[in-house]
Amino acid sequence: MFEVMIGRSTGMLIFAQQQVDPGRVALFIVLGIVLLFLIVLLALFARFFPLWIQSVMTGAGIGLFDLLGMTFRKVNPAVILRAKIMAVQAGLDTRVVTSKSLEAHYLAGGNVLQVIRAMIAANKAKIVDLDYKLAAAIDLAGRNVLEAVQTSVNPKVIDCPSQVGGERMLDGVAKNGILLKVKARVTVRANLRQLIGGATEETIIARVGEGIVSAIGSSETHGEVLASPERISKTVLERRLDSQTAFEIVSIDIADIDVGDNIGARLQADQAEADTKVARAKAEGRRALAVAAEQENFAKMEENRAKVVEAEAEVPKAISDALNVGSLPILEYYKLRNIQSDTEMRGAIARAGQPQTVGSKVAQTQ
Fold this sequence. Notes:
The chain has helices spanning 2-19, 22-58, 64-72, 77-90, 99-107, 112-125, 132-140, 145-153, 201-217, 222-227, 230-237, 263-325, 330-352, 358-365, and strands at 156-160, 170-173, 178-190, 247-262. It is α+β, with helices and mostly antiparallel strands. Among the domains are: 49-151, no CATH class; 156-266, Band 7 domain (Tetrahydropterin Synthase, Chain A), CATH 3.30.479.30; 329-366. Strands 1, 2, 3 and 4 form a four-stranded antiparallel β-sheet that branches. The chain is rod-shaped, with a radius of gyration of 56 Å.
């Protein structure tokens, strides 16, 4: 019985030693790591295999590990691969448009697909010189590079003045004073070389409007403008109004001209009315001065009259002294009184037959 128990204990010890064998544990760990790596590799292969197949079939030249590296660099590999395929299929220079340059533009916040589409459109048009660096710079500057290329190939028309709010017509006055209302249409083409930092459509509209108004103002009569509107377009185009702008002016066409009011006649009438008011004010000033001078004369007359009255008051005293002394006979005195009475009567009769003037009325009132 004891031997049987010892045999069982020995067998269990041997079995336990076999279970905790370090070699087998290490082997199991290695097999688990390899299995996990294969699973991860299979998952990555399943994810990037379709993209890699597209790259191989189209000749884009982007390998499987390049696609994996884009994921670690937080770059969307589908976008880069699609852009590279578009560039290769369109025949762009792949020595310039590389996957690294596309990744750099993507990480900078640019629109990679739009840049490639713009380059393809410029290449197909064969009239626009657009390289990858310029296209990427325009895109990073916030401009729509594809729309710029389309505008460069197919010019757009801008209304002057802008029909979105504000005035519908431009007002210009010829030298003869007639007001002309003009509406123009400006055909512009995008200037890709000046698109970065160049002025926008608002500047073109403002410059063309100023040029049209100036051209009308330099015309002798409004009839010259109505007879040949193309003179305005020619004059405005000669000024090179598209300098330092993102556009190149192709043509300026006068769409409509209306004859307005006679501004010159209205200004002359207003000036004549103003001159009349000034003349009235000056005449009123002169009349006031004349009235003041007349009042001063009346005051002097009253002053002189007072002196006369004062002198006349001395006459009776002198006569009295003369009578007392005996140097004036009494008969001569009465004769003098008769002469004075006769003189006063003649003066009263003369004053009664004459109309009263303003000065006499004022004197009587005083």
